[in-house]
Amino acid sequence: MPEFHHTITSQNLENERSLWVRVPDTPPANLDLLVILDAELYRNRVQSPKILDTLFEDETLTNLLVVHVSAVNMETRFTECPCHPPFAYFIAQELIPWIHDNYPATQRANRRVITGLSYTGLAASFAALKHDSLFTHVISQSGSYWSNDCWLTKEFDGVQPPSPPAFFLDVGDQEIQTNVWHREDLIQPISQIEGVERFRDMLERNGYNVRFDIFQGNHSAEDWAQSLPNALKWAFA
């Protein structure tokens, strides 16, 4: 699958970032869409390009445009990912229109999937819930739903949108640490498992379609690499 590098400038975020776009060799008239946040983590550590190549080679995935979206840097990630409205607007008002304009075959995509891990799993979920018709599926690997006293879980409890996305949530059975200091001004009071389970319970309580997996492992790229193929198979089954 050929891959092309682009740069997109965001007025909502007042910055620019790289996009890596993978296109089928002979794209059909209609293409499904996979948006993967945290491009550097996914590409360099999870090895998502290799995972995608394998799934395309055995025809598990077909007719799909893949867009990896850069996180820019760690400071930007800390700012944009914890349910930051400008980031959700960037996805809805700038990124998706850019994809449609440059790859028109995605305009009638049957499956529109957004994927993230840890903090970007939270960001992907927020963007999909805030703009409920934008994505059909969300893949969130070890999502950081503990953020801001589980704000996202509380904010959308009782909200039943007309076009709810389906969610794939997973988390490692060893992600049990509490009171974790990520920076001097950011503490995670509850475990990753508890945060994900609270979010799952909220979604199920409000009628969302949820697939929940606990994998054997921790908060690591190696473990996310093992679970990502199952998530993609679920999303594009």
UniProtKB/TrEMBL annotation:
Gene3D superfamilies in UniProt: alpha/beta hydrolase
- Pfam families for the chain: Esterase
- Coiled coil region boundaries: none
Name recorded for this polypeptide: Esterase family protein
Please give the organism.
Answer: Pelagicoccus mobilis
